[in-house]
Design goal:
Layout: H1 4-8, H2 12-34, H3 42-69
Helix pairs in contact: 2-3
């Protein structure tokens, strides 16, 4: 899991790729939890937090781009 400062240095394409990977992992973790095969329950929270951080950064960049065009 990368911290927020590391995410800021990534490009939009890299963020999108990482978001896709995290969503796939979240999907797998949900299935593991449903079948009682989850080894690290804290990983669910970490993945959710990472997804939120990436989406926040993407929204910040989109707002900045929109403000620059206006």
């Amino acid at each position: 899991m990368a911290d927020f400062a590391d995410l800021r240095t990534k490009t939009d394409d890299q963020l999108t790729a990482e978001l896709t990977e995290l969503k796939r992992e979240q999907y797998n973790l949900r299935f593991q939890a449903a079948t009682n095969q989850l080894e690290a329950p804290s990983r669910i929270r970490m993945v959710r937090r990472s997804i939120a951080q990436i989406k926040t950064l993407q929204n910040e960049r989109a707002a900045k781009a929109a403000a620059g065009k206006a």
